[in-house]
Design a protein that fits this description.
Layout (H helix, E strand, L loop, with lengths): L3 E7 L5 H8 L5 E3 L5 H11 L12 H15 L8 E5 L7 H7 L5 E5 L2 H14 L16 H9 L4 H13 L7 E5 H6 L1 H12 L16 H6 L23 H7 L16 E2 L1
Parallel strand pairs: 1-3, 1-4, 2-3, 4-5, 5-6
GO molecular function: transferase activity
Organism: Dyella monticola
Protein name: Sulfotransferase
């Protein structure tokens, strides 16, 4: 049976690692944290462009085969899963490419109130106060205001991903796109996963939401951000007070465009 590929994308700190940890309980599936294929895809796409003096010898069909080959090569025989979910925030900017390469593939974009994403990053920074984070290029200076600004700008970790989700949401390939809210995944994981399985067309699987397992401690430590990909064993909503100043929190509180049906002209599925 030919291996099937799906993609996890969306906003950071919005449940993509948690979703991958849940999916990985299914022995037919492989899913993990963000990996190198998104960057490799963009690099190869650029190297096959007109900036390569030999690009006159490369056809679009060859480009497609080479790009598709990245996935077949990376997920080699050591991965025995029938269904692979690759995670990268860049996939929301590659909806048409993915549709051409993998016509049956689906993209699940994880989303969350932006204020709480900024809050989550700031909480990590304060928790690891003696370890400057790769999120801010290991720079130890700045304030909560400059950090929020850096995250939210177009090249920032949050701003780039947010714009990528909007590009996919308002693009022409939305039939293969679903937005999964962090709030739904944590408060009603059974409903969230039922929607995921329905969306990707796979038979239902009974997941254990009280026994989730995922570890990326070595990666997180190297990034200067221990806990970046920590997934708690039991899924539950944990209420707390934001660590952000009120004006910073309010700046982003109306950015959840996916909650307004009038802003969803293509009827993208939002769970």
């Amino acid at each position: 049976m030919e291996r099937r590929f799906h993609f996890i994308s969306g906003l950071p700190r919005s449940g993509s690692t948690l979703l991958s940890a849940i999916l990985s309980q299914n022995p037919r599936f492989h899913a993990g944290m963000s990996g190198p294929l998104g960057g490799a895809f963009n690099t190869l796409l650029g190297d096959l462009s007109g900036r390569n003096e030999y690009s006159v010898f490369i056809t679009d069909e060859q480009r497609k085969r080479m790009l598709k080959g990245l996935f077949d090569t990376y997920y080699g025989p050591e991965y025995d899963a029938q269904v692979v979910f690759d995670t990268n925030r860049a996939w929301c900017t590659r909806m048409h490419h993915l549709k051409e390469l993998f016509p049956q593939s689906k993209v699940i974009a994880c989303v969350r109130h932006v204020s709480w994403i900024i809050d989550s990053v700031e909480q990590l920074v304060r928790k690891n106060t003696f370890q400057p984070s790769s999120i801010f290029n290991y720079q130890p200076g700045g304030t909560v205001y400059s950090r929020a600004e850096g995250l939210a700008n177009g090249d920032g970790m949050v701003g780039y991903a947010y714009n990528a989700v909007k590009e996919a949401f308002y693009g022409h390939d939305t039939a293969n796109l679903m937005l999964l809210r962090y709030e739904t995944l944590t408060s009603d994981p059974a409903r969230a996963m039922a929607a995921v399985y329905d969306f990707i067309g796979e038979p239902a699987y009974t997941h254990d939401f009280d026994n989730i397992s995922y570890h990326a401690d070595e990666f997180d430590l190297r990034a200067g951000t221990p806990g970046l990909h920590t997934v708690r064993k039991k899924i539950a909503v944990r209420e707390r007070t934001s660590v952000l100043p009120p004006d910073v929190f309010r700046r982003f509180e109306n950015d959840a465009f996916w909650l307004d049906p009038t802003l969803n002209p293509r009827q993208v599925r939002v769970v």
